[in-house]
Write a structure and sequence with these properties.
By secondary structure, the protein is α/β, with parallel strands linked by helices. It has two domains: 5-23 and 97-227, HAD superfamily/HAD-like (Rossmann fold), CATH 3.40.50.1000; 25-92, DNA polymerase, domain 1 (Orthogonal Bundle). It has eight helices and eight strands, in the order E-E-H-H-H-H-H-E-H-E-H-E-H-E-E-E. Helix 1 packs across helix 4 and helix 3 (57-67) packs across helix 4 (74-92). It is globular, with a radius of gyration of 17 Å. The protein starts with a strand and ends with a strand.
Length: 228
Amino acid sequence: MMPSVTVSRPESVIFDFDGVIVDTEPLHYKTFQEILAPLGIGFTWKEYVDTYMGFDDRDAFLEAFRAHGIDLDARRLKELVASKSIIFQEVIRNGVTAYPGAVQTITSLHASGIPLAICSGALRSDILPILEQLGTAHCFTHVVTADDVRKSKPDPECYSLAFQRLVRSHPSLLSVPRNSLAIEDTPAGIRSARMAGLSVLAVTNSYKGEELAEADYLADSLENVRVT
């Protein structure tokens, strides 16, 4: 177990979603396989972790088809993304469990007056029902999703947009990106946040610590993070 991590109070905090707040990556993997396996282009869990985790749905489908030398036009891609969203909604109706310390961290930061946002490659329709289930939807000023951007992580577009929206909502509280904190669980997410100029706390929920070395802070759980 890693020691506790102390982080100086940031001006804002931007959370990744899958792999940071909830353990939905296995659910996303299962949903992808329900669609892709019958087409003969499914992939293993290891391939998902090594290649697809961190992609938004669009880029994941594009990569799966590309890997098999199959063209995927915009219309078919839109249909696949919509089908995955429908299946995923059915999966999460049974409830989703938050990672230890995630809900407590969110509610504590919110209560202390720190502006919060989400920056995720998932769809808004995937995220909002889960935040409602967890009772944390009201804590986030903004939720930036795959619906809002053209490029997925590691491109910095999503984190830059989340920070810009927080600045517009809280102009007297935020200064430069470096004084705000992103919380991530993947190498692609860390690169995205760092290229947007943010400080980064990584949690080892999905990858080993050595694979997350680009982060400014590293913790094995949000339970062990203290903001002072």
